Amino acid sequence: MKNIAILGSTGSIGKKTLEVVRGYPQEFKIIGLSCSSNVVILDKQIKEFQPKIAVVGDGQKYKELKQRTNSCKISTGEEGLIELATLKEADFVVFSMSGIRALIPFLKAIESRKQIGLANKELLVAAGKIVVQKAKQNGVKILPIDSEQSAIFQCLEGRNKQEINRIFLTASGGPLNNSAKEDLASISPQSVLRHPKWDMGKKISVDSATLVNKGLEVIEAKYLFDIETKKIEILIHPEVIVHSMVEFIDGSVIAQLGIADMRLPIQYVLSYPKRLPFGRTLNFRQISSLNFKSPDEEKFPSLKLVREAEKKAGTTLAALNAADEVAVQAFLERKIKFTDIIKIIEKVVVRHQPLKDNNIDNILWADKWGREQANVLL
Q1: Distances from the Cα of 125 to the Cα of 100, 212, 232, 271, 315, angstroms
Q2: What CATH number is associated with residue 127?
């Protein structure tokens, strides 16, 4: 049985991880959970899974949870997250909590040589150089939970990475794939949150609509698979059946196909290196076509913006990521238009004077600076 700790158990990925665990009680045991502030859901999870420790980020909510339950240890703050991420009994740690606040616990989990399932791409976008170096030093393999990165990981299993010609990251195109460019400014948050294929949280749903998510996945893949971004191409694939592909130097292409259900890549990383039955499979007789096209970068300038931020190097991507979080939240609160999200991020990137990205303090400073600048621009 594999003992699992989840940082971010009340969000979309955290809940789906618990669904997988619920289906295989003989394989997995939950020993730690955490949330930012949703103690109502966390309390229910504690009652069901009986973890050893639960952590609440919000200090006031921490007090509320302490009043709700006494069935396990309750902690709070960064110290609590570090304790959870490095728990001696934990065989596998899932990082599904969003944002840069997971960085220090993440690095501590690596130092503790934990097997890690990563759903927080922001950590690699903002601090990829530090994370990769730390993982190599400690012999830790980071298993990706994102469906596209999981697909690439599976395609590369047992392969010689020197023989990679290109990686194709697929994208559904998001909820605005068929919307006219001139209509984007008036798009409502409700429309953006209605993703045609995936059931995701609000932040990632908006990032999918702007295609910022796909740009960040290019950076994530760069660090996960040690490959130059010029070898990573994005393809819009509305059917969401091919989750990504790898082309090798002889022209052969290996693809990973599957149903659009986040529980599938989550189950894969939890059970790795073995596979478990899932219950649902593709019906190829019902697939009439598979379509692929290049993204419209005039309509979605975020992809170019991420590439420019990478070229600027240093802490620029950390600042970009921070500005995106602020702008997305402002859009969800109807403070800005959908098209303002990228405008704000671009201004932050242009203003940023990057520091070296091999220093944690620099990364944290850039994150704080990016948020401050974005808030000024709202």
Answers
A1: 10, 12, 15, 26, 10
A2: 3.40.50.720
